[in-house]
Amino acid sequence: MSGIVGSRLNIRGSGTVGGLGTDGQVLTSSGDGQEIVFESASGGAVSAINSATANELVTIGSTTTELDAESGLTYTDGALVIGGTTPSLTIGDAGAEDTKIVFDGNAQDFHIGLDDSSDDLVIGLGSTLGTTTHMSFDETGAVLKPLQPAFLAVPSGTTTWNMQQQAALPFVTEVFDQNGDYNTSTYKFTAPVTGKYQFSVTFDTASLDSSASWWNLALATSNRTYGQAGSEQQFDADPTYYGAMCATSCADMDANDTVFIQFYQANGANQLRMGAFGGGHFGGCLVA
Fold this sequence. Notes:
With 288 residues, the chain is mostly beta strands. It has three domains: 9-82, no CATH class; 99-144, no CATH class; 150-286, Jelly Rolls (Sandwich), CATH 2.60.120.40. It has strands spanning 9-11, 17-20, 25-29, 36-40, 65-66, 73-76, 79-82, 99-104, 109-115, 120-125, 132-137, 143-144, 150-154, 173-177, 182-183, 188-190, 195-206, 214-221, 225-230, 241-253, 258-266, 273-274, 280-286. Strands 13, 14, 17, 20, 22 and 23 form a six-stranded antiparallel β-sheet that branches. Strand 10 and strand 11 form a beta hairpin. The N and C termini lie far apart (76 Å).
């Protein structure tokens, strides 16, 4: 074959292909059923593949690469741009399967996708849809955040404690704890991230000592105390039932800050009972 004048395929005796075309040439075809030929790429045009028209798939010699002959679809310097008057991108073809976009990061991957089994749009951790969902949107518009820090704890029956030590009130039983941040041994909630947290506490009381000077109920955080005070001295005798005590606040907390419920009584007998009617709770959640 090496003896053929103008040849473009050169096979040597060793079986090695010596060359295809010359420097700067590319293999092109003008359409279905047409022969393939070597042409110069210097003109900036390459005939399309699969019976498409010239320049529909790729343009060489330009800073912009055009895809599918759409003027609004460009790929420049690593960025794919969908332009036009009403640009849109559709993922999926109405089939019964999950669809997703994966963000491949260095330390963590995240995904946004359609969970077809529940018909929810989900945002989550990892590249596998549905394994660790951080947020979901259902067809009614309801938004769920299943890992958002939130908890609720209640006392165990009627409880008394040493009110002169400013100790944490014993809310010992969890109703729920979405992110595992409440400790049923210390009765403290630990903030997993820096943010604004909404807390509330209420409990019914009995046997408040009228001889005590004053009392203070507080949401005690690592950096600030949100409290209220009162006095029992207006009573002629100990009230059998004093009613509910409650407090609420939106607290600014740093990561690893703690909060607990503190009830302090100055002087008087240590006889106040919490949860005398079985009522009371301590709860909170991250709001911002």
